[in-house]
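Sanity check

After download, print the first record. It should look like this:
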Amino acid sequence: MKIGSQKIGRVISALAVLLVGLATAVNAPAILAHSAAVTNSARPALVSQTVLASLPTVDPAILGTCTAAIHDRYTVVGPDGQTYRTWHPQVVPIDPNNPGAGTCKFAHEHGDNPATSLANPNPPAFGYIGQMVGDLEAHEGFKVFVVNQGAVNNEGGVAQNSTRLVFHQGTGGVKRFDTRTHSMMFDLVASDGHYVHVQGMADTGSVGSICANPRQGRTVVVTTGCSLTSLYEIWALTFNAGGRATINASVGVFDPITVLDPNSLPGQRPTIYTANVFSKFAPAFYGCDREAYSGPIYWYNANGPTTFYTDAYGHPAASGLKQQVSANNSIGIRMSSLDLYQMKLHRSQCVSGLGLKN
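Expected structure tokens:
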């Protein structure tokens, strides 16, 4: 059974194609202006302390050749005033004040550098959303996908706006097989004035086998059931922010670290490493060869307000998660020069030093 990555993601939005508006002219300065206008309360502040006792410990297996103290440098203060871990490079200086001390490598990575995003360059607070619902998502599972206006994908499609997706999708553990909602932060800024800056627990649907037709929202590789020619794990995710915007996206992994035993029961999943079952496909699987599909995005907010609050699941609330949605009613906008409703970008993050809990 061959799974073509070019076709993935269109399932969730095929009916939207005829409803999407045409793209507007590229206007990078306008995107930069709105990105800079995201209010300070939505921006986590960098924390300068070397070690913070309030931080939860991480699995030593993800530290690689670095120490826990080095890992603890990379933190931010979230909107609630608490300290959270954030994005960091995979290779970092041992002592920032002494270049001669060399570097170390973490055994995990978080994808694209969020500071390069034209939609939102601020450091994300990993774990801020999950803790609101008692879900302590593993640090190594947070992945960042940056697509800036003008970026070109492997099919020649040119991004028509700028997006940033921060999503929790690790493949090194079995919890994902039975967890339907995962934290998401999504930012989009378009040159025609459309924007969203939303966050919450996104719904990924039910888990399903790569062998199934039709697939479930969260498709994973299984140990048995069909003959496979690829090991593509992909999750379709959706999040409705207070009835004012709906975010649809998909995230795919070409080299998942673990696979599902379809005969196992929820809560009793064994850890089965992909390399032990499908060694013919690659010498190693580190969950680092990924792609993301952004869109379609729907706006239902012509009359505002453009700033409002919801709970972690997107329900309107007096306080909680801050959401920002432009005053538009639009059933999608053009995302790519080749696709009316989605922009796909494949970007491998595979480097030496990664471990089996990436």
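If your output differs, re-run the checksum step. Summary of this record's structure: The chain has four helices and 20 strands.
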